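Build the 3D complex.
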Amino acid sequence: MKKISIYVFLLLNFLGISASFYPSESGIKYVPDETVFANYFPKENTSLILTDYFKTGFIIKSYFHRYRIIHSFNSADEQIFRVSKYFWEKNKKNIGMTIFLRQAKDVPVNIIPSPPGSQFVGNRAYGHWKLQDSGLRLWAFYSVYQHFPSMLSWGDFRPDQKFYNEMIMAQKNETPFYGTNKEFGTEGAVTLLNLPKKNVSEVVVLKALLKKRLQKFLSLPQEIYE
Amino acid sequence: MNELFDKLIIRAIFVALICALIFAYKYAHSFLYPSSRLQLFKRFYPTQNPAQTLHLLARIIGVGIIFSNFHIYMANGIIVSILDFFVKSIATFFIYLASIYIMESIVLYNFDFSDEILKRKNYAYALISFSMSITLAIIIKTIASVSRDSLILLFFIWPFAIVIIGLASKSYSLVSKLPFNRLLIQGNLALACSYSGFLWGWTLIITSSLNNSVNNLYWYSVQVVLKILLSILIYPLFKLGLQKIYLMQDELGDANQAEINRDLSGPSIGYGIYEGALNLTASFLTTIIAGQIDFGTFYPAF
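Done.
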């Protein structure tokens, strides 16, 4: 019993000391759900686009989200957050989508997934509707904001008025909106083109790695051939 | 904390894997040494036969020494790292057991394990076997490290090293006046100490010679042979120097072989310790001169 107590005591000491000095424990913020973002991002005109998700660990998994933080008048930042499993699973379909949006200090934040840059579309301060030869009106940013489409990972996509109207309707109904033809989200055509998630099967990767390791075992080190 | 706990669990998994591999090694050992099957599979009481304890634990220490060389790279995932570990373990276990078998056939060809250890409790035999197991483990560890995950390189360097240690073990009669076979039958501890020191000394020289990076197999072999030849040239100088500095009197050195053979009690253990320690120290010092002088740009290349 005494030996077990000493063992447990040493184990707790190890965990305690490791946790205190573990770099990632202090560097990455934890997000249990989207409501927490309001505390982390108090400034107006800020939105978070989910650009990637991944998990680490063997038995006890850690879940992570990578976000692009969009400010209207500053360049975009990238930030990784450790998230809860619930939040991670909930947003598996939302790559390329805005997960958090704060337009003004007094206005309530929007945490319903919406297409990236939804705060700019239809806002006369950032652009205008431009009539195309086809008769469609597409959103065009002013030249000072011409980098926005690439920052928002739109590629060649430009929203039309139908897209805008459906987006406004979804915002009023507080339902996620992935685009008129589901252009955004993990499976959306625009996202797949501009924010491709490396969807390589784990089995394929494992097979390739095993093959590589076996080849290494059964061959001479590279330097000997050179 | 997730990562910390997960890392702790992964470490625990590798502890279990190593234990499983040692269990597999136990079976492999019993296949190669059928005479030790009884020793391995019945309950073991360390105090009943200390010679057997020494013999058995030497193999276990050997396995520990070999494992201490392994590195586990987790970047490619746990399955790949387990496979890596498994393949390397099996290969090194195989060559370790084969090395022990070959060395015992060379050095202890006149003796049988069950006679010497189980029946006669021959401590000298146990001590020599102990030294052999550990020195071979150190050599295998060096070979595994030099061959850098390549089984082909491992199986090239291993026979090379075994030939060297096999030849080296036969040179005992050149450095010592103790008659090996006769004293080992008597269970003389002086012989065991002397031979252990001799074996440890050779191991130091061989591992120091083998421990070069392999960029070209031909040049690697030449380099190893040259280093060993250089060590053979330097070793007697240190041995002589140590004897002169500490005014050590080799009592058996003046006696002729016939007189030594007539002495039924055999030499005292002090003589064995003297020879063993002298061999070991001379080998340690030899490795400095043969392998640890870096000339750098002392002789500029033109």
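The CA atoms of residues 117 and 126 of chain B lie 7 Å apart.
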